[in-house]
Amino acid sequence: MPIFKKRAAKTRPQQNAVGTPALAAPRRGEAANGLLAVPPPALAGDLYRALREAVPVIDAAIYKLVRLTGGFRAICENERFQPLLDAFCAEVPTDCGSASLQSFADCFFEQLLTYGTAVAEMVPDDMGAVGYLYNAPQSDYLLRRAKGNFAAVEILRNDGASSTVLPRQEDLLYAALSAPPGSLYGTSVLAGLPFVSSVLMKIFNAVGQNWERVGNVRFAVTYKPSNDAGGTAYAKDRAMRIAEQWSEAMRSRDVRDFVAVGDVDIKVIGADNQILDSDVPVRQMLEQIVAKLGLPPFMLGLSWSTTERMASEQADILTTELEFYRRVLTPVLLKICRTHLRAYGCTDRVEIVWDDITLKDAVDEATARHLDAQTDEIRAALGDAGGKTDGKEGNHAEKL
Which of 75, 141, 189, 318 is most deeply packed, by most CB within 10 A? Predict the structure, then answer.
């Protein structure tokens, strides 16, 4: 059973006057000695999760980055343990109702992108091997530097008022994405997007309200009674009769005519108002979001005009981004594989080999190898031809 589950009932963070969790500021001097357990940015984590739910483009970008990172294979230096390692990678139980090391990596990477920090646990089985991979929720742990080793990171159970160091620290997995200097918590890829997304949501909300007001046509029916004695005396009765007939005509599913006696004026409410053009501001906000996420616009369904050359350059930049993410995930995967093999007496070297990011990359690499082989062949042919030519010139000089 994961050690994260062996804790008291979860307590809610203390609320301040405006209803947001109050994060205690560290006292001066505690951060430098490595003994301070800085709480995770719970408020920011909840905000990022809400951001993904509110803006579909951001949520789609997170999942696309997870899928584009691609698959991998663990290679053991000792070939006798390779079948054991392959079976483990394909069958190890994980969260999300699936079983494979790849599914664990996808869930772990999604947390890493959303919160900037991800923590997991290798739950051992009866033999001491890895029997289950558990992804810890972002609100269940705290991080601090170890007392005896400044380079080590201790993971604590978040119990609210008091926090205790979790046992079996060697079975815990930790990764941070672009952590600021001096901080153990990484930086989410969504950092910097709350303000831009709030402006975008205001535009969408205003557009929806305007269409609800203007698009759903409402009418203003005005009855002006005549100046004679009959018009003044029966003005109220006639107005109520007109309102009744007008409401009945609007509720009818069939097209009906409205007939009134007297001076009746009918106008459409909001017909004179024009809805502001939102194409330019929405695109400006989306450009900021796309630039932060690092994905080409066409991958998010944004049909912005672009050239083939520009699309190729964007694909190359995306490849560089994915290579960076792979470098962050590789140490975690290596630790899992080494821990599992160590239980079976294998201490040989393990390597994580990632798949090619796209088929186009494989084709380009094959084309480059083919051109290199042709170049070597041409150089070899020119070298042989040059040697033969030098020999003939030498014989001719001897004859002279």
Answer: 189
DSSP per-residue letters across 281-312:
HHHHHHHHHHHHHT--GGGGT------HHHHH
Structure token digits, residue 378? 């041409």
Helices of type H across 161-307: 193-210, 229-233, 235-251, 279-293
Lowest mean pLDDT among 99-113, 132-146, 202-216: 202-216
Token pair listed for 258: 């409205």
Alpha carbon separation from 85 to 77, 78, 162, 338 (Å, rounded): 11, 11, 40, 10
Q: Helix-strand-coil percent breakdown of the chain, rounded to 5?
A: 50, 15, 35
Contact assessment for residue 59 and residue 206, using Cβ atoms and an 8 Å cutoff = no
Q: Which residues pair with 267 in a beta bridge?
A: 220
What single-letter amino acid sits at 102? Answer: Q
Taking only the tens place, the pLDDT of each residue in 316-330 is 778 888 889 999 999
CB distance 88 to 130 below 8 Å: yes
CA 127 to CA 150: how far, in whole Å? 32
Q: Where are the domains of the chain?
A: 3-190, 218-269
Answer yes or no: is pLDDT of 37 > 90.
no
The DSSP symbol for 178 reads S
CA distance 173 to 121: 6
Question: What is the C-alpha separation between 290 and 188, in angstroms, rounded?
Answer: 15
